Amino acid sequence: MSDPVGYLPVAPGSQPPLDSPGYGSTHKRHPKQAPIRIAPTLTESLAPKLTERDYPAFADLSVHEGHQAQGERIIVGGRVLDENGRPVPHCMIEIWQACSTGRYHHPLDTHDAPMDPNFKGEGRVFTDENGAYRFVSIKPGAYPWRNHRNAWRPNHIHYSLFGTGFAQRLVTQMYFPGDPLLPLDPVFNAVADAGARDRLICGLDMDVGREEWALGYRFDFVLRGRDATPMENPQ
Amino acid sequence: MSKLVATAAQTIGPYWALIEHPEWADLLRAGGPNEGYAKGERIALSGQITDGDGAPCVDAVVELWQADPEGDYEAGFHGYGRSRCDAEGRFHFTTVKPGPVKGRGNATQAPHVTLSIFARGLMNHVSTRLYFAGEPLNETDPVLAQVPAARRGTLVARPTAPGAWTLDIRLQGDNETVFLEV
Ligand SMILES: [Fe+2]
After folding, report:
1. Chain B residues close to A232, C-beta within 8 Å
2. A185 CA from centroid of ligand 1 (Å)
3. Could you tell me the distance, in angstroms and rounded to a whole number, from the CA of residue B125 to the centre of ligand 1?
4. pLDDT at A235
5. Touching check for B158 and chain A: CB below 8 Å?
6. CATH class, range A58-222
7. What residue in A sits closest to B178 (Cα-Cα)?
8. β-pair type (B42-50, B164-166)
9. How confident is the model at residue A166 (pLDDT cuts 50, 70, 90)?
10. Choosing a second label site near B47 at 20 to 30 A (CA), which of A62, A192, B71, B162?
11. Model confidence at A231: pLDDT above 60
12. Of A166 and A180, which is predicted with more confidence?
């Protein structure tokens, strides 16, 4: 059996540095030493197989126990691809977000905004054979976060994705087009490359939405690709 | 050639608990994917995650990925778990001890578990390996060999009781954990 192929190198500026001074919580939590780069073994090239049998899907966050959540109903859909443009089928996507007023269904969230009892804010979907996914939710509200003077997070949805290889694991946030808070947000702006930042913003898509029911937004995820050429030993 | 660029990571933030399922920390749980799994030695893995001030990271989450007791990733054992950190910043997993895993070329890797740490204040997750103190294969493990000897101990868990192992993770500062990337 031949050795596992490596992953494509990270494109410069496309990932946020762990030391991101604008985001105060990184000060004491970012490692000061560089990580050690290793050649991938089976440990790094494989990944857990997460299936709907063990991790049931729930693709509609807008209804809780038969009750409609408040706010602007939205549909989000798109595809999960790798850097080589290949769809990633059967990819588990975890989703979490604040309700329409900008409050998380969590005791630690003390933001003084009305909590929607019909919005729990957790979802889980799997991509199909073509790497496509879709879920229904409510547009999340902005919320304050004390990082700097009068700091507010732009509207965003959190995601967690598991690919077919360990290095494809992705936790990220999706933003909405035209949000005036984006230029002020240190988390979004921790990504140096403007193109990479823009790819965190979904696009209004009338084909994703449903007439007289919900606006639709398109958002594609790209997971790290594998290198077609054999990897040199980094040693 | 690469046509697309991978999506940028963003911090998991403080509210990932909305997707928390505490039972995932027990890989052998009733009703879980490994229910009834009888091979290998059952073990408990724990550790404290601290920041550059030595303060516990109480809102961190740790993911585990490991092979089965024969060192196989695809023979039926579901080697994935996730644990939140408690009020002391400690994660706790229940699992089976992994076996030696085939390495690159003709190498054999010592038994190990991969740990990934996600937290508010981490713009992207960081990953490391947990090895088991006293394993003869640790002496020849190709990944441990890449780690400077003075820092190797940050990857090696100590036994605290029969079947119980602990490895603390220091995100920053003195005795900072060695993190790995591919
Ligand atoms: Fe958030």
Report:
1. none
2. 12
3. 16
4. 44
5. no
6. mainly beta
7. A35
8. parallel
9. confident
10. B71
11. no
12. A180
What H or E segment, with its residue span, contains residue A198? helix A194-198
Q: A-chain residues within 8 Å CB-CB of B6?
A: 10-11, 14-15, 83, 170, 222-225
For residue A7, give the nearest of B122, B177, B182 by CB distance: B182
* pLDDT tens-digit map of A1-44: 689 999 999 999 999 999 999 999 999 999 999 999 999 999 99
Mean pLDDT (whole number) for A130-156: 98
Which residues, chain by chain, have CB under 5 Å from ion ligand 1? Answer: B 13
At position A99, the amino acid (one-letter code) is C
- Alpha carbons A141 and A154: distance in angstroms, whole number: 8
How are beta strands B61-66 and A122-126 bridged, if at all? unpaired
Phi, psi of B170 (to 5 degrees): -105, 115
Contact B52 A27 (CB under 8 A): yes
Q: Stretch B145-161: mean pLDDT, rounded?
A: 98
Q: How many angstroms away from the CA of B56 is the closest CA of chain A? A: 11
- Nearest chain B Cα distance for residue A234, angstroms: 10
pLDDT at A232: 53
Closest CA to A107 of B50, B40, B14, B120: B14
Domain ranges of chain A: 58-222
CA dihedral (A122, A154, A138, A129) positive or negative: negative
pTM as predicted: 0.96
Residues of chain B contacting residue A44, judged by C-beta atoms under 8 Å apart: 114, 182
Token readout for A9 is 């190198």
- Going through chain A in order, the beta strands assigned E by DSSP cover 36-37, 63-64, 67-68, 73-82, 92-96, 122-126, 132-138, 143-144, 152-153, 156-162, 170-175, 203-204, 215-218, 221-223
- Is A30 within 8 Å of B122 when comparing Cβ atoms? yes
Q: What is the mean pLDDT of chain A?
A: 95
Structure tokens at A110: 């003390």
Is the CB of residue B108 less than 8 Å away from at least one CB of chain A? no
Domain B16-170 fold is Protocatechuate 3,4-Dioxygenase, subunit A (2.60.130)
Instruction: Sort out which chain B residues have CB atoms less than 8 A from A122's CB and list them.
Output: 18-19
